[in-house]
Amino acid sequence: MKGAWVILWFLWPILRLYRTLRGSRREKTDLKITEVGSTSVEVLTDPIHKDDGLPILLIEGLFGFGHESYWRGLPQAIETSGRRRKLIFAKPGAVSSVHDRACEIFYQIKGGRTDYGKEHSDEFGHQRYGKTHPGLYPEWDKDHPIHVLGHSLGGCTGAMLQHMLATNQFEGHVTHADMIRSFSPICSPMRGTTIIHLLGLRSGGQAGFALLSLSGIISRVLHFYQFIGLNFIWDFQMDHWPLFSLKRLVREGAEGIRMAVLWLITVMVRSPFAEGKDNAFYDLGLEGACQSASKIKMNPNTFYRSYAASMTRPAPFFGYHIPSNILHWPALLLLSTYIGSRTRSSLKKVKESIGTTVEQWFESDGVANTVSQYHPHSCREDYCQHVRGFPSRMEKRPALERGKWQVVELRGVTHFCLLPSFLVSSTQRQFYKDYLEFLEEAEAC
Ligand SMILES: [Zn+2]
Ligand SMILES: [Zn+2]
């Protein structure tokens, strides 16, 4: 009997997710579907009126599955707020690096053939060009800015996108950091997460993941997935990597099949994707994330608000962190305990370069270290302001300033409490309300 309860405890969130996804397919919304490349992107297709708010770009996290239910409740919250807003649902590569994801998002919005940049593609050994997109908001420029909201890796991607806009990295386009009016990462490990070492990330300057690590295995499964042509089920958008498809090679006859088998054996031993530094897993590690963060500069005209979650508290006597509530999802209880007690040398080495203590890295939301969710650089009086709880619930709201991070610290909140919002809980409704009020304030300034 006890065993049945344990199984139910583990399976319950999965069953709820399945039911929600099934239900949402039937749900009628006012979103229309536009085909972009081979991925479907939902966007409000009405023209923008004079009194409408600025559009919001929504960026999902790692393994984002491209389903509108990730942001469920947001269109309704916007309707309730009384201000129309265009929603731009980005669909970047589910396991691609933040650089590649930022490129894909830029061309999904502006339209045109995705250009990953000559220097970058030469350095990492993938094709320079990717999918062609019709453009979800081609008028996007300095005079038509947008708001950016990203969850987890989606927030890290948004930070890279603004850096690339600020440094004019999209050939043939004139860009500016002002193209982003506000940027809000949610539970985003902008300086990396120590959980990534569980996936087998090598530390100490070595790139990539060990062959027999979890990430090494995932990468090889992805190669095989692409190889046998299962993209129609779920497109990971890895087309720019030199990955062969069995279908293509079979068409080329016996020689093609021989090449296919040889290629498959080669990537199973040495994966071009997993062995390098151009993938999401590397960018989520402390070394990769801190390298990206070191490039990112604050734009004096953008409003920044991050939502940093924590589900742990210090354990008595030991100084490590343990879950603050036993009723969270069991997997997160285990992961937060792992993060809460990690003291490996790689962490000690990195923390010196980013001005934090090892103890600050114990607190987490079950996936990302809380200190890493604040902002890309260390705390400074002129750089950031921290508040506890949603500002919209405070009697006296903290003043919002351009070019300064406002960090909303949320206690008792896990990595998945705010998003994906399959169930639209009261916390998620409160979060949407808070966020939309932040946008109003940012547009009024
Ligand atoms: Zn790349
Ligand atoms: Zn700070």
Automatic annotation (TrEMBL):
Superkingdom, natural source: Eukaryota
Main location: secreted
InterPro entries linked: AB_hydrolase_fold, Lip-like_C
Gene Ontology biological process terms from the UniProt entry: lipid metabolic process
Signal peptide annotation: 1-23
GO MF annotation, one: hydrolase activity
Keywords, ordered alphabetically: Hydrolase, Lipid metabolism, Secreted, Signal
GO annotation, cellular component aspect: extracellular region
Gene3D superfamilies cross-referenced by the UniProt entry: alpha/beta hydrolase
Lipase-like C-terminal domain boundaries: 90-378
Cellular compartment(s): Secreted
Coiled coil: none
Protein name: Lipase
Natural source organism: Planoprotostelium fungivorum
